[in-house]
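User: Fold both of these, please.

Assistant: Here is the first one.
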Amino acid sequence: MSFPTSIIKAALFSLVCCVTTTGNAQQYFFGHPIIRNFKPEEFKGGIQSWAITQDSRELMYIANNFGLLEFDGATWNMYSLRAGTKVRSVYIGRDDRIYVGGQADFGFFKPNASGALQYFSLADSLPEKHRNFDEVWRIYEQNGSIIFFTFKNIYKYHPGKPIQVIAPTAPLEFSFQVHKNIYTLVWTKGLSVLDKNQLRLLPGGDFFAYKQVASVLPYDRDNLIVFTIKDGVFLYDGRSVKPFELTQEEAFRNIVINQAILLHDGNFALATQNKGLVLLDAKGNLLLNTSVQEGLLDNTVHTIYQDTQDNLWLGLNNGIAMVELSSPFSRLDATMGLSGTGYAALQKGNKLYVGTNSGLFVSDMAGYRKKFMLVPNSTGQVYHLNNIGENLLMAHHNGPFLVKESQAELVPAAKGAWEFVLLPGESDKLVLGAYNGLCLMSLKQNKLNFLHKFKDFEESSRVLEFDKDGDLWMAHGYKGLYRIKFDADLSKIASVKYYNSKHGLPSDQLVNMERVKNELIFPAMTGIYRFDKTKERFVLDKAFSSLFGPTEHIVEMEEDVQGTIYFISNHRVGKITYDKFGKPTLEDQLFKNIREQLNDDLSYIQILDRNNVLFGAKEGFIHYNAGKNKKLMPFHTRLASVASISGETDSLLLSGRVVDKARDTTLPYAYNSLRFVYSSSFYEKPEKTQYQYYLKNFDSSWSEWTSKTEKEYTNLPEGTYVFQVRARNIYGTISEAKPFTFVVNPPFYRSHWAYLVYTLLGSLVLGAAFYQVDKRYKKEKRRLILDKERKLGQKDLEIREITNQSEQEIDRLRNEKFQAELDHKNRELTYSTIHLINKNELLSSVKLELQNILKNGGRTGSQEELKKIIRSIDHNITSEVDWKQFELHFNHVHGDFIHRLQENYPSLTPQEIKLSTYLRLNLTTKDIAQLLNISVRGVEISRYRLRKRLSLDRSENLTDFMLKY
């Protein structure tokens, strides 16, 4: 069996993506992905959903127990087939019809005159003998036909033609489309392909005769991957089947697979009956397993779909979920056993320690399913974690702790510890910042000891850093800064200098301290400052300060090993990167997604490595994967409906696709009060999407941003209006504003007709006659114009059709002429080659006979003549004239092959160039030996040397290389 080229290309692309994105299977998500659950009460549908798809406007359509669900990012709508009929499948056709299949029925939805979706049954047109089928589980489009699959029959619908019924000889299971091919499992027979209205059993397909297949997907250029419901995963190469190895066998034990899809990044997503969502890479590594424990509403996933924004939609047994699969953010929270607000984190080997207001938690990060456990004796508020040597220190509300063997040991010192800092030049002495001052601690032989508290300094010391001179700086958020000097033996504080707004700072409050590029900087209430030791004052760092707004206050900053700076301010969250010239770039769009989730008590950032960053959150931590680039793709804002609110009840005027296609809609004056309902196709935190609207010729400018998805205008004067609406998502991306133009006609008493009536009443009979003539003239003129436009339109269509036919005929003739010329050149080249071979064979034969004569003796004069003849023959065998002529023809036919070869491999000798051309002609070794006037062994040696010149791998065929070059 051979697969279509399109399948092979898609599979190769998927494989490349898979290799590049899943190098570390365990880090697909550091924590748990962000999940948005939709309960049945929210979308007002049945608990079960069976199929999901998306149309060209990016609206979501879901086959549900109660009917067809439509979701536009703001509003859920339900459309029923018949009373009580469940919808099992949905497909958006190229004609924008929404094809659905349900219980003993199938058909399509299309908008009526006002835009509301209306159902049309196709099953009703079937003969009675073919109406007895169960449910339509799959719908596909192939060669312009819509194909509905049941477990009994296959129904093929082509618009305008009767429905074809394909009745197999055995029951069917689920079916699958891989690009242009449609596969299905025929029970008791095996995996088959739909071929010309017949099901043809695939070679080796009988392997699946009694195995229920969940999905068939492309794997690589030679194989399909087949996921069965209960019997494992297999690779099929068109002839035979072999098992696909799953590396974590324990995780897949007793798994029941309902559906599998190939993701945009080349990985596989599995909808399971009992283990929620499962992600695999192409090597069988488990990347992710998300279930009820990780935040899903249900462990049973019936169907799965990836939308245009790379979100993963799950149809659950009880609800619907959306997983932000492409997001660089994941969550470490209660779903992983972690409780409380995040304040501190530290990675030590494979273990990740995190501190919250509930205590210290630890998790082994080596497994794919991470679980945090509370470290014994650590309950309470954790403020800071330090790793000094092999020792883990914890600053806690109850005091300083040493964490050993996953157990916290309190060291009696001070009531309430903020932070530890190692003394410069010391390996075993630390300063502890406590609630009531500073303490000296020692760390020897894996034991933390309290030495003494420094007297005469009682300030709460939360932020500590040593400068290059060995002075300790302490930042107090409500007072300012302190510079502290210790005496030589560290027995007491030698001096304390206090700095505030009198020393160049903009205020005494909200002064922070950070170490960036091994220098101390001081973010103040506004601006970032450095300390000028010569002036004993703080001066504004213009380079840093210029990156932020004039009223922006930096709360937290952390720098990674590559110089990237992550920050949290009172306005935003983001990072600063530097190019090779040192030019900074501030990025904050992506981080808008997490800003409201972060800890606003004591903001916290911990850089684990260059790709993994933790932010303290209100619930646990938010993980940011810096190596996972999320593309902020454009999205659309659409006008969902236009309704009149002039009467006692609203009257729907336009909705759905009819609004999209509406041009210059005219409304009577009675409909001059309107309600516009709109939405956006961005599904990540849609409640945070904001809208801005503008009614041209009524509003003076764009409105303020609002989360409302509708706008009312009342008592609009007559005139022409253009309503525009655009959306701004959580990342700050603004969609394009699509205009809707409409005209409100004036009331009758101000209309042209009314004024004409007034004139007629004043002018009596003459006016009435003029009115009738004028009315008839306008009507006739309009009819003539419409008739003329209709005829011109018909002529335009005829001209375009004739032009298209002419262009197609010209292309066909041009292609035929080109093919004839190519065939002629190939024949000339072949004849030339055969002539050369024959000539050389003849000359070689004559040469051999003459040499035999010389060997057998003869007169001296005759021998000289014979040698002269042999030299002449040698000259003819290696004639350059023949070669030049051959080279000219050869380059013409084979796309300048020789010149391209010489340009790419300039070290090739003329003999190797000739050998390459003969290999391109696919000549035998014997023929090449004749043409090059060497032995067959010589040809083999020349081939070996040519391979070395071309640096070919031993597995690559030299002739195939030349044929493809």
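And the second sequence with its predicted structure:
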Amino acid sequence: MTKTVVNQALKQHERKTVRFSDKAGYERYQKHLLMDHVVLPEAASQRERFEAVARSLRDLLTERWLHTQQTHDKENPKRVYYLSMEFLIGRTLTNNIINLGVEDYVREELQADPHQDWTEVVETEPDAGLGNGGLGRLAACFIESLATLQIPAMGYGLRYEYGIFRQVIENGFQIEQPDHWLAQPDPWEVAQPRQTVQIPVGCQFELHDGVLQAKPGLGTHLLGVPYDRPVVGYGGQTINTLRLWGAATPDHFDFGEFSSGDFVGAIVDRILAETVTRVLYPDDSTRAGQALRFVQEYFLVCCSLADIVARFQRTNDDWQLLPQKVAIQLNDTHPAMAVAELMRILLDDAELGWDETWDLTVRTLAYTNHTLLPEALEKWPVRFFELVCPRSLEIIHEINRRFLADVQQRYPDDDQRASRLSLVEEGGEQQIRMANLAIVGTHSTNGVAKIHSDLLRTRVVSEFAEMFPERFNNKTNGVTPRRWLLAANRDFASLITESIGDRWIADLSELRHLMPLAEDATFRQRFLETKQTAKKRFASWLESTAGQQVNPETIFDSQIKRIHEYKRQLLNILHVIVLYNRLRENLSLAIPPRTFFFAGKAAPAYRLAKLIVKLINNVGRVIDEDPATAGRIKVAFVPNYNVSVAERLIPASDVSEQISTAGYEASGTGNMKFMMNGALTIGTRDGATIEMAEEAGEENFFLFGLTAEQVAESRSYYNPRWHYDNDPETRAALDLIFNDHFSRDEPGIFTPIRESLMDRGDYFMHLADLTSYAEAQQKLGELYADPDAWARKAIINVACSGRFSSDRTIAEYAAEIWDAEPCPVT
């Protein structure tokens, strides 16, 4: 049944694309320049031109956007609401042009301005600062696929004024600067002040030495102001909405208080509101940062649930219909407070009984887990709940009391089990375990790759899986091919369409038709030509924007992801140092020239991750200055990694680095983007890489290292010093770091890395996998020396990447978790 539903959803793009025609396109563009900016076309800046183009396109899609909403209101289908703290949507202009099918319109009408440099106009749009990593990019792919599959849906997030930060590199160090992406008006968003919601906060705040501090007692409230962005499905038939909440305070002014000098309270309220949605991921190394993060999550949940319930009540008057008309997906534990908040609404506002309320809540909510790291499963101090949302805390305690009664009834002689499963962690400061709350309070808990879901069920939360086996399932992640192949890699996408037709754009399984072409010499040559074009284009862009010169004739080997010990950028740079030593010892050593690209941001408080960034940059500088290696290997750290950088580097990459410690990467989605763009993967058997290798055949991957089972089994006896003592290349590489070869002007700076690897046990087992990794890299280099053989494997990878479309993932969510169906907008 599920397979049939999935196939139907994926095949529905047999229909025709909506045609948008506008004979007055250029006139509308000119009008926006004149009316919005009071500027004539010949005097307009590229930013003003971008805004005029974007607003012209928004004008074009608005009627369809409204028609989508009207259709959903009229048909009253089940709607999906996707709650996420991140939506890493990147730039919007090009994606909307492609999904609307209006490239001819843009080319013929909007580019008629002789003063307009189209490339500069596109580059003027900033990446929306609404996310940081894979979780946020997944959410962006998912809402695009929901619209493409015509499933009635809304995304809910926060309208951060600043992104996580803008990364610059100075003397090898990561420096964080403000990412004020909303410094200029965003032409895509539409403020909806009439739909503002009021959010109660259980305490007041005072300003002490410039820091907000909670004051128990009388409460206050915030206003959640919605800002809507269109989410255009491919073909332009359905245009869903991404609603982002901005925090504000009531517009009131007590002149009496001001006249008496008591105006601090109003200032504090305004500071609080501005702070809540000021920045993505405040520094959680401080109590104040943790508290702000907690308030952000509470604010997102309360605003979104209020809006969802209001929408439900517009077309339904029976609360029993809630699970039949509403599906709410919690993207990780960040929105887990939705369990308590939906209970509160049904108990206090709808005045339903507890049992009825609990049944409706569980059947409405579903939870996606994104981590296997126990420390990444959120816990919030009970004190935060007492101050901010005491009613939610009362409800959570009652949920926990009833749940533990069930646990004790099922396991009467196991008091420790009840302690482990409790929603409240005792000992020291009491904390609420948000993952436990999410599992208990929803009808579905899914992982995002087969190995992740298996490990989640058997290790991380095994006792919950024992209690609720029917709730646990897997939904392997996917990415949208519209952005990550059609838009990002136009030359290769054109070659694919020329060879097998264009149905692959809406049904990525069609890429299977490329499989025979892996044996076609002409196609292999054309594939290599498109790859070389992408490499030259990226090299030119990197030099013009970052001043770094790279040789497009070298292997482009890329590891682009958040900097974290388990993702093992440190393993990658250790191998680079091994190569460096080999070349210094044997100047005639034959290896294909290679450029190692690193890109990603380290959390500001994550000192070791930031030191790894420093090591990468220092190694690159030393290699550049050494005559033995200059021109043969190169390390390039690409600063300020974001969606737009990925759209350039992924199509240009020959090699995809997916080298996390096995058992720690939930899924990955960058691995999928690389695969469908013709890069070969070197990686561990972790996350979705396992399923990718199953699809394409392990012989077309470069897999290495310990498996997840071997990692777990070796914990009790693993000794990194053994590898230092017995692996000569490992010892030589480490000695260069520890003896300050890469830090002659900063002696001892990398001591924390030595301590992590040698003194604290190398928890993520870099040294255990280094030799195996180097051997796999050797095989990779040997294959690259045979372009024909390399192209054959790369094309097979592309042909087998169809399973990793987010359309397939969303179709599975719809059929197996949400019970949601398409609602065609005619």
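The longest strand covers residues 220-232.
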